[in-house]
């Protein structure tokens, strides 16, 4: 481990990687601060640029965006009372009243400090889990176990579709079908091409990712802007960090809220928004200033911000270790690594230890670089938020379509992207969650390949006998079934209880 860590440090601590990382942090904070865009859009807009740089620099760009976009959403929550990302909804409940009282700088100081601490603590949790992940990679890596893990990832679709489990499962199935277009990886036969030559190689990842996120988000944002009222942002030039004496009695809240974020981040489907409100309500219960929550209380800002930034390291644990994305942002991280030939899962620690340790270091540095990025974005926020929305959204569409065309050089990818974007927008209007579509598409080829490998190992053995050779696979398939059916059983139970 020390040798691998030193090698990763050598790759990360180069001027070009640090420059790319800071560019990602700055870009993520800016996009996160613009209401209606968020982490997923910021990551997807950066994806085409990662294809023209090395894998470590690409991971630096994505880690920078991922680590800072949630924080950027808190800036607009404090100064505009409109969270830039859903994860920052609780921050505005106390940040905006404090800003209205003339303490915008102090509010953003608390927000920035708590975000950095929560992010760094989540990095520590991620690093401590690395040896455990390495042992898991060495002991378990057969096709049957990997099939079980992938089924767990697919089953998380149900928990990512709270209140819309059936719709979520249908969207996940649609993603699997989308991944099946083109040639069969085992037999080489063509499937679902409908006589269209450009579908012979399947639909590549970029049109799917860009269609689901930036284009669908832009279309939805245009739909929202027709009824949105203009709100003037509160002016602030810089964050004013709290003095050491002001932290007295607040450290326990900071650590507790960060641990809530890490713990809930590990659980697929929970997400940063839920962890933020859990930490917020817990802090209100234990804080001596609980009655001031909602009126501009620093304890509330500490709870909300430390928990939502701590989710980053926690959510990366199942993504890197098991290949199971727990939220849209980590599903996109999974997709982006796949683009670079890096397959997250139980073999990642063995096959690409440099990638793993570089990711740890880059996530730590991205949290530290939030300090200079905060000064830049907060000072520029008034100008950014007043940028004409049609111009901004038009730029996102143009950049996204260029990003689709450049990697493949195929013009046919552009109309495919537009069709997927329009369909994804329609799905959102009718409350169909779009993230399960991406998860099904990303995990589908891996599931198909490992199922074929498992069939070869199985030979003439019966399916039950083959499953009996791997108790771990039985556990994984059982957990996958629990993920799928538990929300449905809960819904049926609550309905029966109400009756």
UniProtKB/TrEMBL annotation:
Residues spanning the membrane: 20-49, 56-80, 107-128, 140-160, 166-182, 194-216, 259-280, 355-378, 390-411, 418-443, 463-489
One of the Pfam families matching this protein, by short name: TctA
Domain DUF112: 18-438
Keywords: Membrane, Transmembrane, Transmembrane helix
Superkingdom of origin organism: Bacteria
Protein name: Putative tricarboxylic transport membrane protein
